[in-house]
UniProtKB/TrEMBL annotation:
Keywords assigned: NADP, Oxidoreductase
Stored PROSITE patterns: ADH_SHORT (PS00061)
Region called Disordered, residue ranges: 43-70
Oxidoreductase among keywords: yes
Compositionally biased region (Low complexity): 44-69
Provenance organism: Hypsizygus marmoreus (White beech mushroom)
Pfam families to which the protein is assigned, alphabetical: adh_short
Molecular function terms, GO-annotated: oxidoreductase activity
Organism superkingdom: Eukaryota
Family designation: Belongs to the short-chain dehydrogenases/reductases (SDR) family.
Residue stretches making up the Ketoreductase domain: 6-221
Name of the protein in its database record: 3-hydroxyacyl-CoA dehydrogenase type-2
Length: 285
Protein backbone atom coordinates (compact mmCIF):
# COMPACT_ATOMS: atom_id res chain seq x y z
CA UNK A 1 0.00 0.00 0.00
CA UNK A 2 1.25 3.45 -0.77
CA UNK A 3 2.09 5.85 2.06
CA UNK A 4 2.03 9.20 0.31
CA UNK A 5 -1.09 11.28 0.91
CA UNK A 6 -2.62 8.71 3.25
CA UNK A 7 -3.51 9.38 6.88
CA UNK A 8 -2.24 7.08 9.62
CA UNK A 9 -3.38 7.16 13.23
CA UNK A 10 -0.42 6.57 15.54
CA UNK A 11 -1.00 6.04 19.25
CA UNK A 12 1.96 6.76 21.50
CA UNK A 13 3.37 8.92 18.73
CA UNK A 14 4.91 11.61 20.91
CA UNK A 15 8.04 9.73 22.00
CA UNK A 16 10.17 6.65 21.49
CA UNK A 17 9.35 4.20 18.72
CA UNK A 18 6.04 5.93 18.00
CA UNK A 19 7.70 9.29 17.46
CA UNK A 20 10.29 7.76 15.13
CA UNK A 21 7.45 6.19 13.16
CA UNK A 22 5.62 9.51 12.90
CA UNK A 23 8.73 11.32 11.68
CA UNK A 24 9.58 8.64 9.13
CA UNK A 25 6.09 8.44 7.65
CA UNK A 26 5.79 12.22 7.40
CA UNK A 27 9.09 12.27 5.50
CA UNK A 28 7.53 9.81 3.06
CA UNK A 29 4.48 11.95 2.43
CA UNK A 30 1.98 10.67 4.99
CA UNK A 31 -0.39 12.63 7.19
CA UNK A 32 -0.30 11.56 10.82
CA UNK A 33 -2.82 11.85 13.64
CA UNK A 34 -0.86 11.49 16.89
CA UNK A 35 -2.79 10.19 19.89
CA UNK A 36 -0.88 10.52 23.14
CA UNK A 37 -1.18 11.90 26.66
CA UNK A 38 1.78 14.22 26.12
CA UNK A 39 2.38 16.43 23.07
CA UNK A 40 5.09 15.58 20.56
CA UNK A 41 8.09 17.87 20.02
CA UNK A 42 7.11 21.23 18.52
CA UNK A 43 9.12 20.35 15.43
CA UNK A 44 6.57 17.64 14.67
CA UNK A 45 3.35 19.41 15.62
CA UNK A 46 3.11 23.12 16.41
CA UNK A 47 0.03 24.94 17.63
CA UNK A 48 -2.11 26.84 15.14
CA UNK A 49 -4.60 29.66 15.32
CA UNK A 50 -8.09 28.68 16.50
CA UNK A 51 -10.68 28.11 13.83
CA UNK A 52 -13.20 30.88 13.32
CA UNK A 53 -15.95 28.36 14.04
CA UNK A 54 -16.18 27.46 17.71
CA UNK A 55 -17.98 24.25 16.83
CA UNK A 56 -15.18 22.96 14.62
CA UNK A 57 -13.73 19.61 15.75
CA UNK A 58 -10.30 21.03 14.98
CA UNK A 59 -10.54 24.03 17.28
CA UNK A 60 -7.56 24.02 19.68
CA UNK A 61 -8.02 24.49 23.40
CA UNK A 62 -6.68 27.54 25.19
CA UNK A 63 -3.91 25.67 27.01
CA UNK A 64 -0.24 26.54 26.43
CA UNK A 65 0.00 23.52 24.16
CA UNK A 66 -3.43 22.82 22.69
CA UNK A 67 -5.03 19.45 23.31
CA UNK A 68 -5.68 19.47 19.59
CA UNK A 69 -3.39 21.27 17.14
CA UNK A 70 -2.58 20.94 13.48
CA UNK A 71 0.07 21.49 10.83
CA UNK A 72 -0.09 20.53 7.15
CA UNK A 73 1.14 16.99 7.88
CA UNK A 74 0.36 16.25 11.54
CA UNK A 75 -2.51 16.47 13.99
CA UNK A 76 -2.07 15.98 17.74
CA UNK A 77 -5.05 14.92 19.83
CA UNK A 78 -4.38 14.55 23.54
CA UNK A 79 -5.70 11.10 24.37
CA UNK A 80 -5.62 8.72 27.31
CA UNK A 81 -5.66 5.36 25.54
CA UNK A 82 -7.44 3.84 28.56
CA UNK A 83 -10.50 6.03 28.00
CA UNK A 84 -12.75 4.80 25.20
CA UNK A 85 -14.61 8.12 25.03
CA UNK A 86 -11.34 9.98 24.43
CA UNK A 87 -10.35 7.45 21.76
CA UNK A 88 -13.69 7.91 20.01
CA UNK A 89 -13.27 11.68 20.15
CA UNK A 90 -9.75 11.41 18.71
CA UNK A 91 -10.96 9.26 15.82
CA UNK A 92 -13.80 11.70 15.14
CA UNK A 93 -11.38 14.63 15.09
CA UNK A 94 -9.06 12.72 12.78
CA UNK A 95 -11.88 12.00 10.34
CA UNK A 96 -12.82 15.70 10.32
CA UNK A 97 -9.16 16.62 9.71
CA UNK A 98 -8.98 14.19 6.78
CA UNK A 99 -11.84 16.03 5.13
CA UNK A 100 -9.71 19.18 5.31
CA UNK A 101 -6.49 17.58 4.01
CA UNK A 102 -8.09 15.20 1.52
CA UNK A 103 -5.73 12.43 2.69
CA UNK A 104 -7.85 9.32 3.21
CA UNK A 105 -7.25 6.90 6.07
CA UNK A 106 -4.50 4.37 5.46
CA UNK A 107 -4.37 2.56 8.78
CA UNK A 108 -3.74 2.59 12.50
CA UNK A 109 -0.37 2.01 14.18
CA UNK A 110 -0.65 1.07 17.84
CA UNK A 111 2.58 2.22 19.51
CA UNK A 112 1.09 3.22 22.89
CA UNK A 113 2.26 0.88 25.61
CA UNK A 114 3.91 0.56 28.99
CA UNK A 115 5.85 -1.92 31.07
CA UNK A 116 5.75 -2.36 34.84
CA UNK A 117 7.78 -5.16 36.40
CA UNK A 118 6.54 -7.00 39.47
CA UNK A 119 7.21 -10.49 40.79
CA UNK A 120 4.30 -12.84 41.42
CA UNK A 121 5.45 -13.03 45.03
CA UNK A 122 7.85 -10.34 46.20
CA UNK A 123 10.65 -10.57 48.79
CA UNK A 124 8.15 -9.77 51.57
CA UNK A 125 5.80 -12.57 50.53
CA UNK A 126 3.22 -10.21 49.04
CA UNK A 127 1.34 -11.21 45.91
CA UNK A 128 1.55 -9.38 42.59
CA UNK A 129 -0.74 -6.33 42.72
CA UNK A 130 -3.89 -6.16 40.65
CA UNK A 131 -3.16 -2.47 39.99
CA UNK A 132 -0.12 -3.27 37.83
CA UNK A 133 -2.00 -6.02 36.02
CA UNK A 134 -5.05 -3.85 35.30
CA UNK A 135 -2.97 -0.86 34.16
CA UNK A 136 -0.84 -2.97 31.83
CA UNK A 137 -3.83 -4.67 30.25
CA UNK A 138 -5.84 -1.46 29.91
CA UNK A 139 -3.07 0.30 28.01
CA UNK A 140 -1.38 -2.47 26.04
CA UNK A 141 -4.36 -4.66 25.16
CA UNK A 142 -7.67 -2.86 25.67
CA UNK A 143 -6.33 0.46 24.39
CA UNK A 144 -5.03 -1.22 21.23
CA UNK A 145 -8.31 -3.08 20.76
CA UNK A 146 -10.48 0.01 21.18
CA UNK A 147 -8.47 2.29 18.94
CA UNK A 148 -8.28 -0.36 16.24
CA UNK A 149 -11.99 -1.22 16.23
CA UNK A 150 -13.07 2.43 16.19
CA UNK A 151 -10.65 3.33 13.39
CA UNK A 152 -11.81 0.31 11.39
CA UNK A 153 -15.35 1.69 11.24
CA UNK A 154 -13.90 4.28 8.87
CA UNK A 155 -11.12 2.26 7.22
CA UNK A 156 -13.54 -0.34 5.83
CA UNK A 157 -15.25 2.42 3.80
CA UNK A 158 -12.06 3.77 2.18
CA UNK A 159 -11.98 3.42 -1.58
CA UNK A 160 -9.70 0.46 -2.44
CA UNK A 161 -6.40 1.24 -4.11
CA UNK A 162 -6.57 0.95 -7.91
CA UNK A 163 -4.36 -2.16 -7.96
CA UNK A 164 -4.94 -5.86 -8.46
CA UNK A 165 -5.04 -6.33 -4.68
CA UNK A 166 -7.43 -3.45 -4.06
CA UNK A 167 -5.98 -2.84 -0.61
CA UNK A 168 -7.74 -0.49 1.80
CA UNK A 169 -5.29 -0.25 4.67
CA UNK A 170 -3.29 -1.88 7.41
CA UNK A 171 -3.45 -2.37 11.17
CA UNK A 172 -0.10 -2.53 12.95
CA UNK A 173 0.23 -3.62 16.57
CA UNK A 174 3.38 -3.58 18.68
CA UNK A 175 4.10 -6.62 20.81
CA UNK A 176 7.53 -7.49 22.20
CA UNK A 177 10.05 -10.28 22.42
CA UNK A 178 8.50 -10.71 25.89
CA UNK A 179 5.47 -12.23 24.15
CA UNK A 180 7.73 -15.24 23.56
CA UNK A 181 10.45 -14.95 26.22
CA UNK A 182 9.30 -12.97 29.21
CA UNK A 183 11.71 -12.24 32.04
CA UNK A 184 11.07 -12.66 35.77
CA UNK A 185 8.75 -9.87 36.86
CA UNK A 186 7.19 -9.59 33.40
CA UNK A 187 4.09 -11.74 33.90
CA UNK A 188 1.67 -8.86 33.26
CA UNK A 189 3.75 -7.31 30.48
CA UNK A 190 4.37 -10.62 28.72
CA UNK A 191 0.68 -11.51 28.99
CA UNK A 192 -0.31 -8.22 27.39
CA UNK A 193 2.16 -8.54 24.54
CA UNK A 194 1.27 -12.20 24.06
CA UNK A 195 -2.36 -11.14 23.74
CA UNK A 196 -1.48 -8.83 20.86
CA UNK A 197 0.40 -11.63 19.17
CA UNK A 198 -2.64 -13.91 19.58
CA UNK A 199 -5.01 -11.24 18.24
CA UNK A 200 -3.06 -10.84 15.01
CA UNK A 201 -4.18 -13.83 12.95
CA UNK A 202 -7.89 -13.86 13.87
CA UNK A 203 -8.06 -10.13 13.26
CA UNK A 204 -6.40 -10.58 9.86
CA UNK A 205 -8.93 -13.28 9.05
CA UNK A 206 -11.79 -11.00 10.11
CA UNK A 207 -10.54 -8.16 7.92
CA UNK A 208 -9.46 -10.07 4.83
CA UNK A 209 -12.86 -9.56 3.17
CA UNK A 210 -12.35 -5.82 3.61
CA UNK A 211 -8.86 -5.97 2.03
CA UNK A 212 -7.23 -4.78 5.28
CA UNK A 213 -4.04 -6.41 6.55
CA UNK A 214 -2.90 -6.92 10.15
CA UNK A 215 0.77 -7.05 11.13
CA UNK A 216 2.32 -7.17 14.60
CA UNK A 217 5.91 -6.20 15.30
CA UNK A 218 7.77 -7.77 18.22
CA UNK A 219 10.89 -5.72 19.00
CA UNK A 220 13.65 -6.91 21.26
CA UNK A 221 15.89 -4.42 23.09
CA UNK A 222 15.52 -0.96 21.56
CA UNK A 223 16.69 2.47 22.60
CA UNK A 224 13.57 4.05 24.10
CA UNK A 225 12.66 6.17 27.14
CA UNK A 226 11.70 2.90 28.88
CA UNK A 227 15.09 1.24 28.40
CA UNK A 228 16.74 4.53 29.34
CA UNK A 229 15.63 3.86 32.91
CA UNK A 230 17.76 0.70 33.16
CA UNK A 231 21.19 0.60 34.77
CA UNK A 232 24.41 0.22 32.77
CA UNK A 233 24.82 -3.25 34.28
CA UNK A 234 21.44 -4.36 32.96
CA UNK A 235 22.12 -2.80 29.54
CA UNK A 236 25.38 -4.74 29.27
CA UNK A 237 23.71 -7.99 30.33
CA UNK A 238 20.90 -7.60 27.81
CA UNK A 239 23.28 -6.95 24.92
CA UNK A 240 25.66 -9.74 25.93
CA UNK A 241 23.01 -12.39 26.55
CA UNK A 242 20.16 -11.35 24.29
CA UNK A 243 21.59 -10.05 21.01
CA UNK A 244 23.59 -11.94 18.39
CA UNK A 245 24.51 -9.22 15.89
CA UNK A 246 24.79 -6.30 15.79
CA UNK A 247 25.82 -6.12 19.45
CA UNK A 248 23.69 -3.14 20.40
CA UNK A 249 20.14 -2.03 20.98
CA UNK A 250 17.93 -1.45 17.99
CA UNK A 251 17.36 2.18 17.04
CA UNK A 252 13.98 3.90 16.74
CA UNK A 253 14.81 4.58 13.09
CA UNK A 254 15.15 0.85 12.42
CA UNK A 255 11.76 0.25 13.99
CA UNK A 256 10.25 2.99 11.83
CA UNK A 257 11.77 1.47 8.71
CA UNK A 258 10.11 -1.83 9.59
CA UNK A 259 6.74 -0.14 10.02
CA UNK A 260 7.16 1.44 6.60
CA UNK A 261 8.03 -1.97 5.12
CA UNK A 262 4.94 -3.54 6.74
CA UNK A 263 2.76 -0.83 5.22
CA UNK A 264 4.29 -1.16 1.79
CA UNK A 265 4.55 -4.95 1.45
CA UNK A 266 1.07 -6.24 0.59
CA UNK A 267 1.97 -9.89 1.19
CA UNK A 268 2.85 -9.56 4.87
CA UNK A 269 -0.37 -10.28 6.72
CA UNK A 270 -1.48 -12.12 9.85
CA UNK A 271 2.10 -12.37 11.10
CA UNK A 272 4.12 -11.29 14.11
CA UNK A 273 7.52 -10.10 12.90
CA UNK A 274 10.46 -10.03 15.32
CA UNK A 275 13.10 -7.29 15.44
CA UNK A 276 15.65 -8.88 17.72
CA UNK A 277 19.16 -8.71 16.28
CA UNK A 278 18.91 -12.50 16.12
CA UNK A 279 18.90 -12.75 19.89
CA UNK A 280 16.84 -14.71 22.38
CA UNK A 281 16.26 -13.51 25.92
CA UNK A 282 17.38 -16.10 28.52
CA UNK A 283 15.41 -16.90 31.67
CA UNK A 284 17.73 -14.79 33.81
CA UNK A 285 20.12 -11.98 32.90
Amino acid sequence: MKIENRTFIVSGGSSGLGLATVQDLIQHGAYIAILDISPPPPSVVSSSSPSSSSSSPLTPSSSSFPSTSETPRALFVQTDIRDVAQIQDAVTRTVAWMKVTGAVLGGVINCAGLGRNELMINSKGKAHSTDIWDLTMSVNVTGTFNLTRLALEHLVHVEPEPTADGERGVVIMVASVAAFEGQPGQTAYAASKGALRSMTLPMARDLARHHIRVVTLAPGPFTTPLTGQLSDKVHTAIIKAGVLYPKRYGTPGEFAETVRWAIGCAYVNGETVGLTGGGRIPAFL
